[in-house]
Write a structure and sequence with these properties.
The complex is a heterodimer of chains A (242) and B (253). Chain A has 242 residues and is mostly helical. Chain A has one domain (2-11, 20-239). Chain A contains 11 helices and no strands. Chain A has helices at 2-12, 18-24, 27-39, 48-80, 84-89, 96-128, 136-163, 169-187, 197-202, 209-213, 216-239. In chain A, helix 4 (48-80) runs antiparallel to helix 6 (96-128) and helix 7 (136-163) runs parallel beside helix 11. Chain A is elongated. Chain B is mainly alpha-helical and 253 residues long. Chain B has one domain. Chain B has helices spanning 2-12, 17-33, 39-78, 82-88, 91-123, 132-159, 163-181, 187-192, 197-200, 227-250, and strands at residues 204-207, 219-222. In chain B, strands 1-2 form a two-stranded antiparallel ribbon. In chain B, helix 3 packs parallel to helix 6 and helix 5 (91-123) packs antiparallel against helix 6 (132-159). Chain B is elongated, with a radius of gyration of 20 Å. The chains are: A mainly alpha (242), B mainly alpha (253). Chain A binds chain B through residues 16-18, 20-21, 24-25, 28-29, 32-33, 35-36, 39, 42-43, 58, 62-63, 66-67, 70-71, 73-74, 166-169, 171-172, 175-176, 179, and chain B through 15-16, 20, 23-24, 27, 31, 59, 63, 66-67, 70-71, 74, 162-165, 167-168, 171-172, 175-176, 178-180, 182-183, 185-186, 189, 211.
């Protein structure tokens, strides 16, 4: 039944143009970040690491949070239209699975975006002519942890969109969240604040930082946030009157 | 038109549009003004703000435009009201009324930001007299790009029921605009997109910065104003308005 729900979620998004944005958006920082890297090559001497910061700095703080906000708002808004909540909540399956299936859809889009960001990063590095070998393992870790941090953000945004019925307000909150993420990261709380976790996981401002604290605390915090949000949202959906 | 504007006001009551706009403005102001006011800021404050704020404006004001335009237009899409409204009033007038109402909100926010900035400078006793001429120019160069971006967002939000299209277009444009401000070596980039005009119309620059001495000998100075592209921006705004209005009038509702 759960797979059928996932399939239904996928069908709801079929022919929707929003995936185009997730394809187009990473091209902008990849191109402009590379140009910026070439312009400041004398200061940015850590090769792949420097290029990675140029590619991901603004993406993590401003644009991916907003993109995730739009995506989550869109997924929830689908149910607000045409009183779809009535149909969804009367389906013969556990209500707690509704939120999880939506979260998995958002997560898959974040994962694809991360992989695309990683691919563009490698292509840019090759075009620029970086001589050191491609740090494949680190790219995979950055993208994987970025996805995990993004999932935390998506679960919170989905929860917000569950409460706030209009489309635009959760997106404004996502921007506020992204900015607060930057602030918390600067104050040293990047590893616990939900809106900082993606930037922290992607190591967008200090590629070596996460290795000092290890992977486990990061993983645990992300999982706790996701479980808390899913449990709370499931409870709300369960109690919701159709 | 007054009647239509009043209708817009009544429709948006209890929709938290004004609180949303003010919340975004407040976040922007906190972002700009939070922190310790040291001697450096007191010495160069007036010009430093004129140098730094266009970048912050390029982040927040397009987003403010997106959110407000979407909220106002989505009211009609959500309630399936366009068909009804278009039977009662000329489509062009509906387009104009909504645009004017949204622009009013945006203008109030820009004025608020400007006023708080000035008050902040006066309260903290920035050195030198308040450069009113420069700050009026800054106000115009903040307001006009925001108005043009709002017209663009308004058109998208009115034309497409799916508000994600307007948001994604705006976000990608904003992204290019912000990045273009970090690439002064590519001036055509910021001139190509509406969102880059906060940078095109920036008239205070940081000089004397070198990789070795960094900020030690750095100072803020005036740069020539690009009036040609200011005119291009105004023309683009008028053109966008005419195209948007035409498309909305021809659209099947």
């Amino acid at each position: 039944m759960f797979f059928k729900m996932l399939k239904a979620e996928r069908m709801k998004l079929k022919r929707s143009p929003i995936w185009i944005a997730f394809v187009l958006m990473p091209i902008v920082p990849a191109f402009l970040g590379t140009v910026n890297y070439l312009g400041n090559i004398e200061i940015l001497q850590s090769e792949w690491y420097s290029l990675w910061t140029q590619h991901t700095l603004f993406t993590c703080y401003f644009f991916l949070p907003i993109m995730i906000g739009i995506y989550c708002s869109y997924i929830m808004h689908e149910e607000e239209n045409n009183r779809n909540w009535n149909k969804v909540l009367t389906m013969p399956q556990g209500r707690n699975m509704i939120f999880i299936s939506k979260l998995i859809m958002a997560g898959s889009m974040i994962l694809l975006s991360e992989l695309w960001i990683g691919a563009l990063f490698v292509i840019s590095g090759k075009i620029v002519g970086l001589t050191s070998p491609v740090p494949w393992d680190k790219i995979l870790i950055w993208c994987g942890f970025g996805t995990l941090g993004g999932l935390v953000m998506a679960s919170i945004q989905l929860l917000i969109s569950l409460f706030i019925k209009n489309f635009a307000l959760p997106i404004a909150i996502a921007l506020g969240g992204g900015l607060s993420g930057l602030m918390f990261l600067a104050k040293g709380f990047g590893h616990i604040w939900p809106y900082s976790l993606m930037a922290y996981g992607m190591n967008s401002n200090a590629p070596q930082k996460i290795y000092e604290s290890g992977y486990l605390p990061f993983l645990v915090i992300c999982v706790i946030y996701i479980i808390l949000c899913s449990a709370f949202a499931s409870l709300i959906i369960k109690k919701r009157d159709i | 038109m007054i009647r239509l504007l009043k209708c817009e006001y009544l429709k948006t009551r209890h929709c938290f549009i004004f609180p949303t706009a003010f919340a975004i403005t407040a976040i922007c102001l906190c972002w700009c003004l939070y922190g310790d006011v040291d001697d450096e800021i007191i010495k160069y404050g007036w010009r430093m703000f004129l140098y730094q704020f266009p970048l912050v404006n390029a982040i927040f004001l397009p987003l403010l435009s997106m959110v407000i335009a979407s909220r106002l237009c989505n009211l009609e899409h959500k309630g399936k009201m366009q068909k009804l409204l278009c039977c009662m009033e000329k489509r062009g007038k509906l387009f104009d009324a909504k645009l004017l109402y949204g622009l009013g909100i945006i203008t109030v926010c820009v004025v608020l930001m400007w006023a708080v900035t000035v008050i902040f400078g006066v309260v903290n006793r920035f050195l030198g007299p308040f450069p009113i001429k420069l700050y009026l120019l800054y106000f115009i160069f903040t307001l006009i790009p925001t108005v043009v971006i709002y017209i663009f967002q308004h058109t998208l939000s009115m034309l497409f029921k799916n508000q994600a299209i307007a948001f994604f277009t705006g976000i990608i444009g904003e992204f290019i605009g912000i990045f273009s401000m970090f690439l002064p070596s590519l001036p055509f980039l910021r001139r190509m997109v509406l969102w880059g005009y906060y940078g095109v119309l920036q008239f205070v620059g940081l000089f004397g910065w070198t990789k070795e001495s960094r900020y030690e000998n750095a100072y803020f100075d005036l740069m020539p104003i690009d009036w040609t592209f200011f005119c291009v921006l105004i023309c683009a705004g008028i053109l966008l308005y005419l195209i948007g209005r035409y498309l909305f009038c021809k659209k099947e509702v």
